[in-house]
Amino acid sequence: MKALELAGELSREIRGRVCALEPLAKHTTLRVGGPADIFAEPADCHEVRACLDFADRKGLPAYILGNGSNILVTDAGVRGVVVKMTSLRKLEIEGELVRAGAGVSLPQLVALTVKNSLAGLEYLAGIPASLGGAVAMNAGTPEKSLGDLVHAVWVLKGEEINVLRKGELDFGYRHSRVLQDKLVVLGAELRLGSGNRAELEQKVANRLARRRQTQPLEYPNAGSIFKNPPGDFAGRLIELIGAKGWRCGGAEVAVKHANFIVNRGGASAREILFLIERIREAVWKQSGILLELEIEVWGD
Questions:
Q1: pLDDT > 90: what percent of the chain?
Q2: From the candidates 31, 174, 207, 280, which is the catalytic residue?
Q3: What integer pLDDT is reported at residue 1 of this predicted model?
Q4: Do the domains 2-84 and 91-213 sit in the same CATH topology, yes or no?
């Protein structure tokens, strides 16, 4: 009942959608996970701040949710306030500068910039993240990371909205100051280059085809489970232990790509976590390398 009361209270403070006990399996690409006690979709940046202020006043943890593409929510769900940034979708193009809200998806950004003959984001085609999460994690490929293109980021820290320039963001492999300091991305400005639309469209098509060939996109997944250790690839190390095809209930280590765990139907978070720990232990025993998670695990 407390969750219902708190959700009702927050709903009176913002215009956006608020509900109690929202199943987070509906909001993550793995399609697993229990409910969020309080789930909010604020209408704008000011309402994001209001949601976080509400959580702080009530002594509740707050979680920022984008597209849910690198998150594993436990079966028990999340105690606290989950703030989904869906409504922050403003998009502007001024020459070679692109300004976008945190809720804009990378596929949408790629499509728009290619349509406008702007080069740079085609390297990130197929990454299913929202811009906010992609900036925080410095999402990317071996050829290019999003941080290479970021010119400025609008962040919320406490009650203040600040602008951080590229030199202040400390981008690294799956790292940024945003992630380190637990800042909330509201939007970003990207500096791209000019390109030939037909050539850019072909590059995007090639990358998407390559992803379909090498990644298990036919099943719900969270992308790469582990970060690549220095000088090596997590997928290679996992393949060496013979983990492809390992199963636990509805969860499976993908045959197409060993660094993916897929939900083949009805998988639970517990089953996925079991495979994660089995992989880490086996890789450690064989190579002495302790794999670090790339995904985030939320909940009890």
A1: 96
A2: 174
A3: 60
A4: no
Residues 110-125: tens digit of each pLDDT: 999 999 999 999 999 9
Measured in whole angstroms, the distance separating CA 153 from the mean position of its chain's CA atoms is 17
DSSP 168: G
Q: Which sequence spans correspond to the domains of the chain?
A: 2-84, 91-213, 216-298
What class has domain 216-298?
alpha beta
Sequence-distant (6+) residues with CB within 8 A of 278 are 243, 246, 248
Catalytic residue among 69, 105, 176, 224: 224
Beta bridge partners of 247: 252
CATH of 2-84, one of 3.90.79.10, 1.10.10.200, 1.25.40.10, 3.30.43.10: 3.30.43.10
The CATH T-level fold of domain 91-213 is 3.30.465
Question: Residue 174 catalytic?
Answer: yes
Q: Is 207 a catalytic residue?
A: no
Segments in the chain forming alpha helices (H)? 2-11, 45-58, 106-115, 131-137, 177-180, 197-214, 234-240, 269-287
Active site residue 145: no
**Span 46-66, pLDDT tens digits:** 999 999 999 999 999 999 999
Q: Which pTM was predicted?
A: 0.94
Question: What confidence tier does 259 reach under pLDDT thresholds 50, 70, 90?
Answer: very high
